[in-house]
Amino acid sequence: MLSPSAPIARRVPVAIVGGGQAGLAMSWLLKRRGIEHVVFEKHRVAHEWREARWDSFCLVTPNWQCRLPGWPYAGDDPHGFMLKEQIVAYLEGYAASFAPPLHEGVQVTRLRRVDGGFELQTRAGDCFAGQVVIATGGYHTPIVPRSAERLPGTILQLHSSSYRNPRQLPAGAVLVVGSGQSGCQIAEDLHLAGREVHLAVGAAPRSPRVYRGREVTDWLTDSGYYDIPYERHPQKETVREKTNHYLTGRDGGREIDLRRFALEGMQLYGRFGEIIAGDGALLARFAPDLGHNLDQADASYLSIRRSIDQYIEAQGIDAPCEAPYMPVWEPQAERTSLDLAGAGITSVIWAIGFAADYRWIEAPVFDGRGRPVQRRGVTDVDGLYFLGLPWQNTWGSGRFADVGKDAEYLLRHLALADTGVG
């Protein structure tokens, strides 16, 4: 339910744009500090979790990592993985716990720098703020390739954000394009429902779920991996461009091994290229890189295992050993095309991500690709900050795990700025 409408303050020291976990974390800290502020949310609390996730969706990180400021996970299953409706309840409970100055259903349509601060134009009136925190995340516009326009109306097309369950799709085979977390989990959802699935596999890495007797997130927490800032990460700033490792929290949590899916009948291809007409058929074309992509995913998987082995050895921990990993399936040939009609494809699900859309922000803080240039959320424009971006500082920056730490860092800047809030 949307929060009751209330007059929007025309002048506030701080405005937060976005009422998800990042915006709420920032609001909790500001309220505790006694700093007047307002939060604008285009939809309602937990909208993305509620509306842009499929029915069987669950967290891929354990519940104990849900540790928003003042609201750590308090359930009876810390090592479980909250389902979609539980995530929504967690966030709604957070908002109810401290009653933030939240305006739901209010979209900020324009943000521009003016003397002394920023003007925010909204559909419910304008607001002036001395400082602004952009907490809308980095996933705004679903990506669908232009070649999708060549598909006939008889084939249902969905972006992953619109997929709900197998019953939503017409009878027939399904082509899933993209092997990040969403693509792999949706492909598994369909596979478990007995649907014939064709999956275009990209360069996404994969992760173990449990290794040497413990959940991998426990090992990586203890070893300090999650505290490494991106500047000290071996991949440096490029880590911000990497797709999340695929695995699942479904049924108590498990690994996703696409090779095993192939053994069970799922059809795998390389990276999606385009839709073309050829030889009287409509073809989906793929790069001849399936074997390479599977090998690279396994390389990431094995790298995580090696890092845990090294930590165990360095700390002298008594942990059970595991057998070496052996691939259970190898592609016999690289299939570079698929006759959609011949394969009985009646649905295509595009799971190739989102693009950021900050066109409503009028400030010189973006690079040539439209991404915010920031250091731990602080931009070169005084008073303008970002929060909740992937790898804003560490692995947990855009997650329940550590968005609160980034908010605490920004709080120091907000509280010290000369806007009457110190």
Could you tell me the CATH topology label of the largest domain: FAD/NAD(P)-binding domain
Structural class: alpha/beta
Percent of residues in β-strands = 15-25%
**Overall geometric form:** globular
Task: Give structural notes.
The protein is built from eight helices and 22 strands. The chain is of the alpha/beta class and 422 residues long. The longest helix is centred in the C-terminal third of the chain and has 26 residues, at 290-315. Strands 1, 2, 5, 6, 7, 8, 21 and 22 form an eight-stranded mixed β-sheet that branches. The mean pLDDT is 93. 39% of the residues are buried. Helix 1 packs parallel to helix 3. It has two domains: 11-140 and 356-416, FAD/NAD(P)-binding domain; 149-350, FAD/NAD(P)-binding domain, CATH 3.50.50.60. It starts with 10 loop residues before the first strand and ends in a 6-residue tail after the last helix.
Main features:
2 domains, single chain, globular, 22% strand, FAD/NAD(P)-binding domain, five-stranded parallel β-sheet, 422 residues, eight-stranded mixed β-sheet
Topology:
Elements (H helix, E strand, L loop, with lengths): L10 E7 L3 H13 L3 E5 L5 H5 L15 E2 L2 E2 L11 H15 L3 E3 L3 E7 L2 E6 L2 E10 L6 E2 L13 E4 L13 E5 L3 H12 L4 E4 L9 E2 L2 E2 H7 L35 H6 L3 E3 L2 E7 L2 E6 L3 H26 L21 E3 L5 E6 L3 E2 L5 E2 L21 E3 L16 H14 L6
Parallel strand pairs: 1-2, 1-8, 2-5, 6-21, 8-22, 10-19, 11-12, 11-19, 12-15
Antiparallel strand pairs: 3-4, 6-7, 7-8, 9-20, 13-14, 16-17, 17-18
Helix pairs in contact: 1-3, 1-8
Short description:
With about 425 residues, the protein is an alpha/beta fold. Helices cover about 25% and strands about 20% of the residues. It has two domains: about 10-140 and about 355-415, FAD/NAD(P)-binding domain, CATH 3.50.50.60; about 150-350, 3-Layer(bba) Sandwich (FAD/NAD(P)-binding domain).
